[in-house]
Amino acid sequence: MADALAARATSLPLPDALIPMPLHPNRLRQRGFNQAYEIARHIAGNLHLPVWPHAATRILDTPPQASLPLKERRKNLRGAFACDSRIRGKRLAIVDDVMTSGSTLDALAETLLKGGAAEVQCWVVARALQHGF
Questions:
Q1: 2-48, pLDDT tens digit by residue?
Q2: Which domain does 107 fall in, by range?
Q3: From 61's CA, which of 13, 30, 43, 103 has a CA 20 to 30 Å away?
Q4: Per the confidence metrics, is the pTM higher than 0.70?
Q5: What CATH number is associated with residue 115?
């Protein structure tokens, strides 16, 4: 899947760095790995880009988005992310496995832009469509 995303990305202006969607440390412990980081690492190798796995962090341990209706998803993510100063002036691409409502990507992109990123793209492997969320 990462190969397909990397191939598609070559038609875009490439970012300065890839930012894998961060997991809260509790979720990371439960899962044992960050799937977005694994995808980003593979893409980075194909495109010769750096991956900055610690440039953005998830500081709130929020309930899983999939269990919430759309309005609650946006509320659930208020203040959920933080970023460090190395992103200032950089063109970034957030990498994630699946986008459902886009609320998580929006929240992280907003945090990165407020932190000084010049541009934020969102690269996802799959787009889930649901009715009624």
A1: 777 787 888 888 999 999 999 999 999 999 999 999 999 999 999 99
A2: 2-127
A3: 43
A4: yes
A5: 3.40.50.2020
